[in-house]
Amino acid sequence: QVQLVESGGGVVQPGMSLRLSCVASGFTFRNSAMHWVRQDPGKGLEWVAVLSYDGKNNYYADSVKGRFTISRDNSNNTLYLQMDSLRTEDTAVYYCARDQVTYFDQWGQGTLVAVSS
Amino acid sequence: IELTQSPGTLSLSPGERATLSCRASQSVTSTFLAWYQQKPGQAPRLLIYAASSRATGIPDRFSGSGSGTDFTLTISRLEPEDFAVYYCQQYGGSPPWTFGQGTKVEIK
Questions:
Q1: Are B43 and A103 within 8 A, CB to CB?
Q2: CB under 8 Å to A90, separation ≥6 — which residues?
Q3: Per residue in A83-112, pLDDT tens?
Q4: CA B53, CA B15: separation in Å to the nearest integer?
């Protein structure tokens, strides 16, 4: 069955960096575009970034553009999110999700990022 | 495109019918509207895509409808496991993907 397992979350101070990972299994990872979606604790969902199946095309939410970088390693079935210059408003649970163009059909369990001084 | 869900909270009893609304700030292609269910401590789960198509394994008590700016998720008879938060989501043909703020269905 499809599995997406995120890791790398933690508590960091404003201005610091963090890299999240998402290991995929149960499907042909190299054929799927992948997303990061985040959720403020107790609040709603916000799309963060998407990366094409081959890693050549990416898009970011305006709130993270220039600070976050999405990448992938298809040989290891892993998606990454490099988060630099973190702000308190980046505090959230971060999910990786599989793309079906107009919606997300599979989600990981999420990893919590807390940015606090 | 902004999505506004109503009501914010729906208090119902098991066995009752739930009707959740999702209104878009401008017209949404029906193919690009999806619904998710989220329970506490869990990731969202896809319920409905293309406004009315049930995802794999979703019971037929869940149905989606609508077009243009008004979409509806209906749960015909609430089961105990259906009490959760529900989100609509749209894709406008280019990024970003956006979500509504959610409707909580709670036990009355």
A1: no
A2: A38, A64, A83, A113, A115
A3: 999 999 999 999 999 999 999 999 999 999
A4: 23
Q: Give residue A80's pLDDT.
A: 98
On chain B, the residues whose CB falls within 8 A of the CB of A100 are: 49
Beta-carbon neighbour count of residue A48 at 10 Å? 26
**Would you say A8 and A96 are in contact if contact means Cβ atoms under 8 Å apart?**
no
Q: List the beta bridge partners of residue B73.
A: B20, B64
- Inter-chain CB proximity B96 and A104 less than 8 Å: no
Take residue A74 and report the two structure tokens written for it. Answer: 């298809």
Query: Residue B14, SS3?
Result: coil
Q: What is the radius of gyration, based on Cα positions, of chain B?
A: 13
Using only the alpha carbons of chain A, give its radius of gyration: 13
